[in-house]
C-alpha cells in the first residue's frame, strides 16, 4: 500500500484508475479542478470501492498550476506522497488547434508546476498520462515505441513537450522513477454503469458520440471520410477498454515501485484495429438501438489507421488488454443508458 496523488482523478480515465488503485489497497489524494469532470464521479468511485476503502480516499478541489493547491495535496497525507499518477490536462485535438495557448498553459506549464512540487516534497515517482497522438502520421503499423515522435497538433505537441521535460529531469537528477504511458483510444465504462465518460458539450471522440446518438441525445453520427485506404473506407483505430487502461496504470506503478529508478515509455493499446463503421455496427448490436450516420469529408489531421504495438507493455508490465470490442460497446451503453445526461442529471 502506498500514498498516491492522483491529478485529474475525477475525470474519465482518472476515476476508473482510482477505483482500481483503491481495490489494490492504496491511499489516494485526488486533486481536480472539475473543469472537464464531475465530483459525482469520485463519489461513485467511493461507493463502488466500499465503506472500508472510502477511508483511504480524499478529494481536493484545486489546480495543478497553483503551487498552494499542490502543497495542500502533498501535505494532506501524514506520511507524505510516495508517487503521483498524473492525468490532469486538456485533451481535445480540435480545440487545441483553436486554443493553443490554453493547452500549453494547462498541459505543459501545469506539469512543470507539478514536478516542481514533487521536488519540494521529495517525491520522485510519477506515472504520466501521455498519448499516441504524438506519433502524428505513423510511419508504420502497428506502431512501436521507437516510432518517431512527430505530433501534428498543439495537443500532441503539449504531450511531447511534457515527455521531453520528464526525460530531461531524469537525466539531470538521479532517483526518478518515471513511466510515460502512451494511450491509444480509451473507451467503455465500468461494468456497473455507475462511472463512465461524460464529455462537456459536443463529444470529440467516437464512442461518446455514438452513445449519445443511440440514447437519443443527438440525431446522427458524422463519419469523417469513407475513402480511406482501409477495408470499409472508414478510419481504423486501436480502442482500449478504460478498465484495461486503468489496470495498466496499476501495473506500471508496481513496476516503478519495485525496480530501480528508470524512465519507462510504453504504448497502452490492444494491438487490434477497428474501423468507425465496425464500431457503429457493434454498438447497434450491443444496444439494440439504431445509430444513424452520415458520411462527411475527411478532417484535416486525421490518419487512415493507428494501431499500437503493445508487446513492450506485455513484456515489462505483464499487462495486456482482456476486454473485446463487444465488451467496450456493452459497457459504454450500460453507462449511457443509466446516465442519459451523464453526471448532470437532477436526481444525482
Automatic annotation (TrEMBL):
What are this entry's molecular-function GO terms? UDP-glucose 4-epimerase activity
Q: Which GO terms describe its biological process?
A: galactose metabolic process
Which Enzyme Commission number(s) are on file for it?
Answer: 5.1.3.2
Q: Per its Swiss-Prot or TrEMBL entry, what cofactor is needed?
A: NAD(+)
GO CC entries: cytosol
Q: What region holds the NAD(P)-binding domain? A: 5-331
User: Which InterPro entries did the record assign?
Assistant: NAD(P)-bd_dom, NAD(P)-bd_dom_sf, Sc_DH/Rdtase_CS, UDP_G4E
- Which top EC class is given? isomerase
Q: Which domain of life is it from?
A: Bacteria
Listed under catalytic activity are: UDP-alpha-D-glucose = UDP-alpha-D-galactose
The alphabetical list of record keywords is: Isomerase, NAD
- A Pfam family (short name) is GDP_Man_Dehyd
Q: Which family does it belong to?
A: Belongs to the NAD(P)-dependent epimerase/dehydratase family.
Q: NCBIfam families recorded for this chain?
A: galE, PRK10675.1
* Name the UniProt record assigns to this protein: UDP-glucose 4-epimerase
Taxonomic classification: Bacteria, Bacillati, Cyanobacteriota, Cyanophyceae, Synechococcales
Amino acid at each position: 500500500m502506498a500514498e498516491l496523488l492522483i491529478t485529474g482523478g475525477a475525470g474519465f480515465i482518472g476515476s476508473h484508475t482510482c477505483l482500481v488503485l483503491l481495490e489494490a489497497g492504496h491511499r489516494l489524494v485526488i486533486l481536480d479542478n472539475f473543469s472537464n469532470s464531475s465530483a459525482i464521479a469520485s463519489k461513485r468511485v467511493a461507493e463502488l470501492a466500499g465503506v472500508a476503502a472510502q477511508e483511504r480516499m480524499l478529494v481536493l478541489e484545486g489546480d495543478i498550476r497553483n503551487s498552494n493547491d499542490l502543497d495542500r495535496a502533498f501535505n494532506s497525507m501524514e506520511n507524505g506522497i510516495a508517487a503521483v499518477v498524473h492525468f490532469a490536462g486538456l485533451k481535445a485535438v480540435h480545440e487545441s488547434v483553436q486554443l493553443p495557448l490554453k493547452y500549453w498553459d494547462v498541459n505543459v506549464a501545469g506539469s512543470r508546476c507539478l514536478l516542481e512540487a514533487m521536488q519540494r516534497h521529495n517525491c520522485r515517482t510519477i506515472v504520466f498520462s501521455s498519448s499516441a497522438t504524438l506519433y502524428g502520421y505513423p510511419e508504420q503499423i502497428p506502431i512501436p515505441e521507437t516510432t518517431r515522435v512527430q505530433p501534428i497538433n498543439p495537443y500532441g505537441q503539449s504531450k511531447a513537450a511534457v515527455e521531453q521535460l520528464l526525460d530531461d529531469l531524469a537525466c539531470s537528477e538521479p532517483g526518478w522513477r518515471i513511466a510515460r504511458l502512451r494511450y491509444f483510444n480509451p473507451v467503455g465504462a465500468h461494468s456497473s454503469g455507475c462511472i463512465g465518460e461524460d464529455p462537456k458539450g459536443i463529444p470529440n471522440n467516437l464512442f461518446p458520440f455514438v452513445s449519445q446518438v443511440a440514447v437519443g441525445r443527438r440525431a446522427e453520427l458524422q463519419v469523417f471520410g469513407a475513402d480511406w485506404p482501409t477495408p470499409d473506407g472508414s478510419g481504423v483505430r486501436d480502442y482500449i477498454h478504460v478498465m484495461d487502461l486503468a489496470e495498466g496504470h496499476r501495473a506500471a506503478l508496481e513496476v516503478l515501485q519495485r525496480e530501480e529508478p528508470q524512465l519507462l515509455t510504453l504504448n497502452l493499446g490492444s494491438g487490434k484495429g477497428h474501423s468507425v463503421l465496425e464500431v457503429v455496427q457493434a454498438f447497434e448490436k450491443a444496444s439494440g438501438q439504431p445509430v444513424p450516420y452520415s458520411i462527411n469529408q475527411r478532417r484535416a489531421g486525421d490518419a487512415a489507421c493507428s494501431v499500437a504495438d503493445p508487446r513492450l507493455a506485455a513484456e515489462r508490465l505483464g499487462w495486456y488488454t482482456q476486454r473485446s470490442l463487444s465488451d467496450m460497446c456493452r459497457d459504454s451503453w450500460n453507462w449511457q443508458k443509466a446516465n442519459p445526461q451523464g453526471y448532470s442529471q437532477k436526481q444525482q
